[in-house]
Design a protein that fits this description.
Layout: E1 4-6, E2 16-19, E3 24-27, H1 41-64, E4 67-80, E5 83-95, H2 98-108, H3 112-118
Antiparallel strand pairs: 1-2, 2-3, 4-5
Helix pairs in contact: 1-3
Pfam families: OsmC
Keywords: Plasmid
Protein name: Osmotically inducible protein (OsmC-like)
Length: 129
């Protein structure tokens, strides 16, 4: 799947439209330059990890018949020159023993976005015609 981001100078704003061909959403710069009600690119990256973790835990808990009633994942980040550290915190509600909680933590660390962000990433950029 390909994500497309579009910005038009005549819009008078800094926000961009995003689409994967079926879903559509927007992103903007941080306030005060942009619209503070929209996610910025770092929010989108961090939210990809939070969403993937939440969905992965939900599916896994159902398969294992764990009594998982609620998942809350918070992701923040710390930036320094040359580094971007994601800090993820899991809150798991339900009748879960320590073994189930440890199993869910193990699975959270294997969600697809976690795997991608933990691996070597390369970016190949070209100019279109």
């Amino acid at each position: 799947m390909t994500i497309e981001a579009t910005w038009l100078a005549n819009s008078g704003a800094s926000l961009c439209d995003l689409s994967n061909g079926t879903a559509h959403w927007k992103a903007d710069l941080d306030a005060p330059a942009g619209d503070a009600t929209l996610p910025n690119p770092h929010d989108l990256l961090d939210s990809a990890l939070a969403a993937c973790t939440t969905l992965t835990l939900q599916i896994y808990a159902k398969r294992r018949n764990y009594d998982l009633q609620e998942v809350r994942v918070t992701v923040s980040h710390e930036e320094a020159p040359g580094t971007y550290k994601l800090v993820r915190r899991l809150e798991l509600q339900g009748n879960l023993d320590e073994k189930a909680r440890e199993d869910l933590l193990r699975v959270a660390n294997k969600c697809p976005v976690h795997k991608v962000l933990s691996s070597q990433i390369s970016i190949d950029t070209t100019l279109a015609g």
